[in-house]
Write a structure and sequence with these properties.
2% strand, globular, mainly alpha, 2 strands
Length: 274
């Protein structure tokens, strides 16, 4: 089987894994269904179980992805860490601080928020994933920006999880690379498959990714960047991620999207009528 077909098979395995996990979690939600229920922007109830389902699908895809042991382990570390700390924040959120600046400010004051724990945890697992991905030849000057990129992508993906399907659509933007012969395409496929499989649930407003799912998808795409791009491209990508993250503290992404015709139409595609 050619490498491109193997990447497509990886995406298919991720989609199947996500759907199976979704079905199992729906039947037996850990801690009970109420624990995972949230109210969306319309005031309707939905579940956060989509996030763990996406992470499970991504791990299933990584198990068969043609990426080599190091990248497979790096991807698994990033997904598992981001999903675990994201779910922790989803289910046990404590404190009134919001956003990256709010949580870092709280930590500076000695206040530990679940968001702050998530930032530290995803930073640590992002570092571990980057060290693993770069291997023994990875230099400190390469590892630290790579770790920041993984953690930054995890956080950035979560910033888009404010409307049905939006975060998944953003996560699917790199999906055309699935048909390339680059090894990192296997990591992109491990995100694309679960994202496509769960998109109907998200667009139908039956579920949402939450921090657990959005962080996991973003972190894995960050590892794909680390694996597939050189240091200069990684630094440029990191600069873009930091700029968007800082902008989110001042500007509403939703307002920008709704004010931009092309972005608005893409954002509304497949969603329920307002």
């Amino acid at each position: 089987m050619g490498l491109r077909l193997r990447h497509l098979a990886t995406a298919a395995a991720g989609a199947a894994g996500a759907r199976i996990a979704w079905a199992v979690l729906q039947r037996r939600p850990p801690g009970g269904a109420d624990r995972w229920q949230r109210i969306n922007h319309r005031g309707d109830a939905l579940t956060l179980l989509e996030g763990p389902a996406l992470a499970a699908g991504a791990l299933a895809a990584l198990a068969v992805a043609p990426v080599g042991a190091r990248l497979r382990a790096a991807g698994a570390l990033a997904v598992t860490g981001a999903a675990a700390f994201g779910v922790l924040d989803d289910l046990t959120e404590r404190g009134t601080s919001k956003g990256l600046r709010g949580h870092l400010g709280a930590l500076a004051r000695g206040e530990v928020t679940t968001g702050g724990v998530k930032i530290a945890g995803i930073g640590a697992t992002g570092l571990a994933a980057s060290v693993t991905a770069l291997g023994p030849r990875g230099r400190t000057r390469d590892v630290l920006p790579a770790a920041a990129l993984v953690a930054g992508c995890a956080n950035l993906a979560n910033l888009f999880d404010l409307r049905p399907g939006r975060a998944l659509k953003v996560a699917l933007l790199p999906s055309p690379f699935v048909v390339s012969a680059a090894p990192a395409a296997g990591l992109v496929a491990a995100v694309a498959g679960p994202a496509v499989a769960l998109l109907p649930e998200d667009l139908g407003e039956r579920a949402m990714l939450g921090d657990g799912g959005a962080n996991a998808a973003g972190a894995l795409l960050g590892v794909a960047l680390v694996a597939g791009a050189g240091p200069r491209v990684q630094l440029a990508a990191l600069g873009g991620v930091v700029a968007l993250t800082l902008a989110s503290e001042k500007v509403s992404f939703t307002k920008v999207i709704e004010a931009t015709p092309v972005l608005r139409e893409l954002d509304l595609a497949g969603r329920r009528p307002r």
